[in-house]
Design brief:
The chain is an alpha/beta fold. Helices cover 45% and strands 11% of the residues.
């Protein structure tokens, strides 16, 4: 069994050896010392797990309450109207909690230690137990009983006040003299009062801050008693209720906070303890290299972005920006990825899993906030109005106005002109400010300037911190939908289009030179669709032989094809015939151009006479690279050595320093070695050269690569992608001993329209799945072969593109060998 990725704290057994608890410095201090009693955070940050961990540690030296469960929690509260007058005073809540906690401690000591001093309270316990019909006595059960004051089944106000009056003169002296070490744990008080958030929100504050105040007084009065509790972070906005003691109470509180590096270390820790059968390769339990750890779980280290051209991101960074910065979200996404068999973890399957999990995160988060924010109850209606993930201020105001009109229609209210919307949040009082709400929830971002560097970046607030004291939406040139909300909206709205100009995420850098994004993206999408239709209709057959550059690497355009043939021959020549020159090459191409595949096919073409070594600077450790390069000196046969992602690790000084001297090996008579370095940074070949030149030992490395040996591979066009699709499925079919001669044009339209299939690697994954679904007796790839049975993507695409379905279904492109 693998480790447990913690999602539901209530279902987590802290005694299970497969559970791992990650500790930041502040959390370690909380666990190691006994002077911090309150744990504060929003939902999903691990308050419950932390209290459970603390209890496990305290059990060695303390009697821990409650006895049969880890943490005490109140049931959902239902207050009587008669009791509201008593509960409407904050100081009464402190008294209720003190009495509830002290009585439960007395009950424990009476039962297990038979202390005669508690005899007079025994009768009180019996009355309470009989009247409330409870079998176990905990602070929260006492509190629930006291909160029924005035109801037919509860305690009378007179009896309650009598019990409260006993505290200072009878209960407190006994409590102060207890010398038995007791630790008590209380959790989820916020959940018990969520039903009162709309109409009696003060009760939600009073219950939690009253508990905090009671813990402050009780732990101060008796050093043998330790009382630990969780407090929802939003409740701290009313710390003024505590008066002069609020500073002292804050000193008793741990505010849980995880930075991105903490979450990354947490992830690494989980992966190192994961069942090796759920990893792409087995890890050494002492592995320190983050790249290796991440690749073991994800199957790769970096992801090409499906929508934004020339953008590549670290896989963990992609996971993180789809979260709400909470540990639970990391676990949710990784559990979804864990469901994919290690052999099937590809860029496409990872993206799908991340988006699936992120949509669920946004859905659950908004559902949790419905109790705080009424308009979120109509989130499905709101989703239908969202067409993209980037908006101008005017776009937002138009959507907000349309949503408020719909809200009033649903409630059968009179609808004023423009729905009563004034197009100004400051003066618009009657309507729901939905985007202001989403901004305060951390689901809508803005462009913000750093106070330190003055650089612009995208900014999303931390989740939940501003629910009760929301700010109006700040001015920003553009506004961004959080990736998790975007994933959720895409499931609800088939008209949704993603911006293709930049990646969205908290603290992602912003370049203010992108033009009119919101309008241009829509036009670009229509232009792209029309280009795809024209391209497919212009083709009736593809000759794989005519398109071949080398091996299975193929290009459609004749000029590009012949240029690449020349490149391949230039690289092959010194491998076939020994020279005494530096035979080193540089290749630049945009992500998704197949540059690595191009060199791999050259190596395959020479496999009988040439050895091949591939090093990836981004993924391989310094030790591995030094070892492999050192071995080259002893090789006496022709060797092609590729160093991929030569532009990686730009912040580290060692890569080029360790590499450049080996580029002289071919000058020796005993060595016949060709080096090819590959990269995609800086937007062009010259840009990458300039970037490399600025790095430590960059000039030394580049001086060993002749100017004429620096190549640029053009990005593939639509025809190239069709050739690639045809080549992939044809080759895979031959491997299964059947010929695939035709591809339905509708399937080509789907593939070219799908931005998640814009690289050779993604297309290969799809081709494998398609060929596995085709019968060996069939020589055609049909549109339905692209999907598993019942796939909603198929149904939706068919519905959204009826004009193309009519035009391209049952029309085939012929694949000529």
């Amino acid at each position: 069994m693998g480790i447990i990725w913690p999602i539901d704290a209530d279902r987590t057994d802290m005694g299970n050896s497969n559970y791992i608890f990650y500790e930041t410095d502040s959390i370690s201090e909380f666990l190691d010392y006994d002077d911090t009693y309150l744990v504060s955070a929003t939902k999903g940050w691990g308050k419950t797990l932390l209290l459970k961990k603390k209890r496990k540690l305290m059990e060695k030296n303390y009697s821990c309450l409650p006895i049969d469960i880890m943490l005490d929690s109140p049931t959902e509260v239902r207050l009587s109207s008669k009791g509201f007058t008593y509960l409407d005073e904050f100081h009464n809540w402190t008294g209720l909690w003190k009495v509830s906690i002290v009585l439960s401690i007395f009950y424990y000591l009476q039962e297990y230690h038979h202390a005669e001093d508690f005899h007079f309270i025994n009768e009180l316990h019996k009355k309470l137990l009989n009247k409330s019909n409870i079998k176990k006595v905990t602070p929260c059960q006492y509190l629930n009983f006291f909160l029924s004051v005035g109801s037919d089944y509860g305690i009378s106000r007179k009896d309650l006040e009598k019990i409260i009056s006993m505290y200072p003169f009878v209960m407190f002296p006994l409590y102060a003299n207890i010398d038995h070490p007791i630790a008590l744990f209380i959790d989820n008080v916020d959940e018990a009062f969520k039903a009162y958030l709309f109409n009696y929100i003060d009760l939600w504050y009073y219950a939690q801050l009253g508990l905090a105040n009671a813990i402050f007084e009780l732990t101060k009065a008796n050093k043998h008693i330790k009382i630990y509790a969780s407090i929802r972070k939003q409740a701290l906005t009313r710390m003024d209720l505590l008066g002069e003691t609020q500073t002292q109470i804050r000193d008793l509180m741990l505010d849980i906070n995880y930075k991105v590096d903490d979450l990354k270390q947490m992830f690494n820790l989980y992966v190192l303890r994961e069942d090796s059968r759920r990893l792409c390769f087995k890890l050494n339990e002492n592995e320190k290299n983050e790249t290796v750890i991440q690749e073991a779980f994800f199957g790769l280290h970096r992801l090409e972005h499906f929508q934004v051209k020339d953008e590549v991101e670290n896989v963990f960074d992609c996971v993180y920006r789809h979260t709400l910065k909470r540990p639970r979200d990391i676990a949710v996404i990784c559990k979804e990825i864990r469901k994919i068999s290690p052999q099937a973890r590809s860029a496409l399957s990872l993206r799908e899993a991340i988006n699936r999990a992120a949509a669920g995160i946004a859905e659950q988060y908004m559902s949790e906030c419905v109790n705080f924010i009424e308009s979120l109850g109509m989130k499905d209606e709101f989703a239908k109005l969202i067409k993209t993930n980037v908006f101008s201020k005017e776009d937002l105001l138009d959507i907000c106005m349309a949503f408020n009109i719909e809200m009033k229609r649903k409630r059968h209210k009179a609808i004023e002109k423009n729905g009563g919307c004034t197009k100004s949040c400051d003066t618009c009082e009657d309507n729901f400010h939905t985007f202001c709400i989403l901004y305060n929830l951390g689901l809508v971002g803005v462009i913000a300037k750093s106070n330190i560097t003055n650089e612009l970046s995208q900014k999303f607030l931390s989740p939940g911190a501003n629910i009760f004291y929301p700010e109006h939406l700040p001015d920003s040139k553009y506004y961004f939908i959080h990736p998790s909300l975007q994933a959720w909206v895409q499931n609800k709205n088939t008209d949704f289009n993603l911006s293709k100009k930049f990646i969205i995420g908290d603290l992602r850098p912003w370049k203010d030179n992108l033009g009119d994004i919101s309008l241009q993206d829509s036009k670009d999408s229509m232009d792209e669709r029309n280009s795809i239709i024209t391209c497919i209709n212009s083709l009736t057959e593809i000759s794989l032989k005519r398109c071949t550059v080398v091996g299975n690497y193929r290009r459609f355009d004749e000029r590009i094809r012949n240029r690449l043939i020349d490149y391949s021959l230039r690289i092959k020549k010194p491998l076939v015939e020994k020279t005494f020159n530096r035979e080193n090459f540089l290749i630049w191409a945009a992500p998704g151009s197949g540059k690595s595949f191009f060199v791999q096919e050259i190596a395959k073409d020479l496999k009988d006479t040439v050895n091949y070594l591939e090093i990836n600077l981004a993924n391989h450790s310094r030790e591995f690279i030094k070892l492999k390069l050192g071995e080259l000196e002893e090789i006496r046969t022709p060797m092609l050595c590729v160093i991929d992602e030569i532009d990686a690790k730009s912040a580290e000084p060692w890569p080029y320093e360790d590499i450049f001297t080996y580029f002289d090996l071919n000058l020796k008579p005993e060595n016949q070695i060709v080096f090819v370095i590959i990269g995609s940074t800086a937007g062009s070949k010259q840009g990458m050269v300039d970037h490399m030149n600025a790095r430590n030992k960059g000039p030394d490395l580049l001086s060993r690569i002749p100017i004429d040996n620096r190549f640029e591979i053009p990005s593939p066009n639509l025809q190239d992608k069709i050739v690639l699709i045809a080549s992939q499925v044809n080759t895979l079919a031959k491997d299964k001993n059947f010929d695939l001669e035709f591809i339905e044009k509708l399937s080509l339209f789907y593939i070219l329209m799908n931005s998640e299939l814009n690289s050779p690697r993604h297309l290969h994954d799809l081709a494998v799945a398609c060929v596995n679904r085709i019968s060996a007796k069939e020589n055609r790839l049909k549109y339905e072969d692209l999907f598993y049975s019942g796939d909603r993507t198929n149904q939706q695409f068919w519905s959204d593109n009826q004009d193309i379905v009519i035009e391209m279904s049952e029309v085939y492109l012929h694949i000529c060998p």
